[in-house]
Write a structure and sequence with these properties.
The protein is an all-alpha fold and 478 residues long. It is 79% helix and 0% strand. The relative contact order is 0.12.
């Protein structure tokens, strides 16, 4: 915990103006995009929903930039993955980090209610514009301008999406275009990278929306079944007859809800930082020939009998799908290898930060004091409530980056200790096998034990002191 606090404090002291600038830029960009998307959505729901992912993408761009701003101050990560000084390479790394972080960020964004907040703000804007259109249409009808009234009206959807062939087609087209860009990115202009990031955000957003709508329909159907009523009656009968059981049931529900938020939120932030910075510890290669037993061998044999061109296309599609989840899995592997003590200490620090944020949100409005609602609060409430996030967000990003750097440092220490033990074992074995006075000591330096084994972990490096920059190394650590 002390190491995490030291790194976070140093990063915050050196980079807080840049962190604050990126965060403010994300807030302003999100507000402007939602306002414009809501205006468009009042006329056409599909067109408005095509713009809404840009608001989420603006936040993600700022988040990636904030993490990468701190990159030069993370000594443990820099020791195994030095920063490049080539501007073109750094732009490519930024784009790769952005593309890799879209899927986990959207999952995090939706799970913690931020996507719902954007949807609420978007819907409020749509309703505001729709009300203005309604008044304009009514005025045109009263004036006898039938043609003008028809042109003023929107599509009647009030910005709401539905599962239609159009939404499904948007997901398929966006995914296909993103896949084509990935295959031909070297031959395409540089500006197409931004369009590819939008396509990635678009198909992920639409997929999350469609899945949410489908789950909502399924949940509504299940909730209306008679079996659910019987289950609720059974639970009520048991808890009514034995009050301590009701207390235990409610206590378990409360504990799971609170513990989930306390533990999963900081772990999710650490996972996102691991995706952005790249998986510094590449997991050891897993042999797949024996997976699945006899059934697996038959499936692999049938797959190898397919034409080469078809297998190449299937491999491309599979790698494109699995590649989105691989950085998430590697980040979890990194945290698992760091051990529960370090991760638990980081969770405690993050929980204390959440407590500080709650205290600021409670204290700042009271420090302002009682003011007139119409003349003061309606005008200044957004600026006042923005003070706490502006103070907390740079600290949060610095704390997460410090936690990730501490994880890397823990793993480097373990690898160095393992290398020393291995070198000592080899030396003892050579001494016992060689004649007296002719002992050959193998050359194992601290850089090889601390860097090569850590960075590649099962892969042979091209240079002993360089990190893997091939397909197994994510952007941000090249």
């Amino acid at each position: 915990m002390i190491a995490v606090l030291q790194v976070a404090g140093r990063l915050l002291w050196r980079h807080w103006p840049a962190l604050l600038a990126w965060y403010l830029g994300a807030i302003l960009a999100r507000y402007a995009i939602i306002e414009f998307a809501g205006f468009v959505g009042a006329y056409n729901a599909v067109a408005g929903s095509l713009l809404l992912p840009l608001a989420i993408l603006a936040r993600l761009i700022a988040l990636v930039a904030m993490f990468l701003v701190l990159r030069d101050g993370m000594r443990q990560l820099t020791a195994i993955a030095p920063l490049t000084t080539d501007p073109a390479t750094r732009r490519r790394e930024f784009l790769d980090a952005l593309m890799t972080g879209i899927l986990p960020f959207f999952a995090f964004y939706a799970a913690w209610g931020y996507l719902r907040e954007d949807a609420v703000a978007y819907t409020a804007r749509v309703l505001e514009v729709d009300a203005e259109l309604g008044w304009q249409q009514l005025a045109a009808e009263l004036a006898g301008e039938e043609g003008a009234a028809t042109q003023i009206a929107g599509d009647g959807q009030v910005g709401e999406l539905a599962i239609t062939p159009i939404t499904i087609a948007i997901v398929v087209i966006a995914f296909a275009l993103r896949w084509l860009w990935r295959r031909h990115r070297e031959r395409l202009p540089r500006w197409t990278g931004g369009f590819a990031a939008y396509l990635e955000a678009l198909w992920v957003y639409y997929t999350v929306t469609v899945i949410g709508l489908a789950l909502g329909m399924v949940t509504s159907w299940v909730g209306s079944r008679q079996a659910m009523v019987w289950l609720a009656d059974f639970r009520e009968a048991i808890t009514a007859g034995f009050a301590p059981l009701a207390w235990i049931w409610e206590g378990v529900e409360w504990f799971l809800g609170e513990a989930g938020g306390i533990i999963l939120l900081p772990v999710a932030w650490l996972t996102i930082s691991g995706v952005v910075y790249g998986q510094a510890v590449a997991p050891r290669a897993v042999a797949t020939e024996n997976l699945g037993g006899e059934v697996g061998r038959r499936i692999r044999s049938r797959y190898r009998s397919l034409p080469q061109r078809l297998r190449a296309r299937l491999a491309d599609i599979w790698s494109d799908l699995v590649g989105r989840f691989t950085p998430i899995g590697r980040a979890f592997v990194l945290m698992w290898r760091a051990g529960p003590v370090l991760i638990g200490g980081f969770v405690l620090l993050y929980t204390l930060l959440l407590g500080l944020q709650g205290l600021l949100e409670w204290a700042i409005p009271r420090a302002v004091g009682p003011q007139d609602l119409a003349d003061f609060w309606i005008v200044n409430d957004q600026l006042i409530f923005l003070i706490a996030p502006l103070l907390i967000e740079p600290i949060r990003i610095a704390l997460v980056a410090g936690g990730y750097d501490a994880v890397i440092g823990k793993l480097r220490t373990r690898e160095a200790e393992a290398a020393e033990i291995e070198a000592k074992t080899q030396t003892d074995a050579a001494a016992s096998a060689s004649p007296e006075g002719s002992v050959t000591v193998p050359s194992v330096g601290p850089a090889q034990g601390a860097t090569t084994a850590l960075t590649n972990s099962g892969y042979d490096p091209a240079e002993p002191n360089s990190t893997a920059n091939g397909p197994d190394a994510s952007s941000g650590t090249k």
